[in-house]
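WARN no homologs supplied; continuing
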Amino acid sequence: MHIAYFNYLYDLYGVSVGSAIKAMELMTAMRGAGHEVDVYWRKEGEGKPGRNGSGLRAVLKSRLARYLHEPSQLLRGMSYWRQEKKILRRSMPDILIARLETYIFSPVCLARRYHLPFIVEADSPVAYELAHFDENYLKNAALVRYLENMWLNRSDRIFCVSRILKDYFVRRGIPDQKISVITNGADVRRFHPGIACEDILGKYHLKDKRVIGFVGSFHYWHGVNHLIEVMDAVLTQYPDAAFLLVGEGGPSRPVLEQYIRDHRHQSRIILTGGVDHDRVPAYINAMDVVLAPYPPLDFFYYSPVKVYEYMACGRAVVTSAIGQLETLIRHGETGMLVPPGDIRALIQAVHTLMDNPEHRKSMGEAAHRYIASCHTWTHKAAALDQLCGTVLAAHHARGER
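OK structure emitted
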């Protein structure tokens, strides 16, 4: 099967890193299953510093961006249409998969024009996100919802990362049977307990420390404010404790940096900055306890890649009992679940694991076995492979190609 995959994430190694990893890993696993997969990162490089120029032009652009953002995005959509038309005419894949994106219409139209089976990767509710999280630009809510509906209604099938997200689209009027759930996963060949981490421990002077870790960007939905409260409690109680925080990006990072300066914790709270994904397993294995302290969110539709990777590395995970995480983790067996926003419960869970190394070890081993049994990228590719085969067979049965 020859697959063309269009992805419109632009900040691949910053705020979008989790979603980008999912796409890279899933398509790599599809190649491993014997398929020819062409991956096109349609916005790669956009949004990087220095793209706006300087002087009067930059000033005008910044002041008018609020009003011109939506028209410029729609015009850019025409450019994508021209480029993708050439791509599809040249490669003529058997099937087209595209990640749902705001203001983009090209894959929907081109799939119909070239009679291609069309699968939508709907890993985020783009109309909802634009309405709730992006106040910088004026936008036409009706237009955004229309374009999202066009993607969803004109696709052959849809897959998303969580049951919560599927239910959201069903409430929007999309038939239940049209949507499959393919959660995130981990590559247990690269994320496993045997990865050496001595160089990490040496580099950051952590060899005699009990290390609490975090991987990800520093956005409010990652619970950075809760992380600070845990630090206060743990560093006070455990003189040999240290925190290793891996990642960059997000508006909460300056708050965290200020906290470290104010409390003179530079030697006990390590901010590594961005780390290549290939090096992340070694950093995770340098941690004794790993955190994903998500705050109470009304609509937690995510499937956090980092939690799968924590578990694959055999670490003892403490995370919020929210959304998909409630079904992924068996409390007390493959991880610790705490009520989202309950700081006392979060701190108590960390204390319990800090004080019980044998419990940490057995919990981590159980977590690794569970991920290896049903949540590798090979498992996820098998589900997508089956979905593609179903769509392609139905397409051929209709005599379209």
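The first strand starts at residue 2 and ends at 7.
OK
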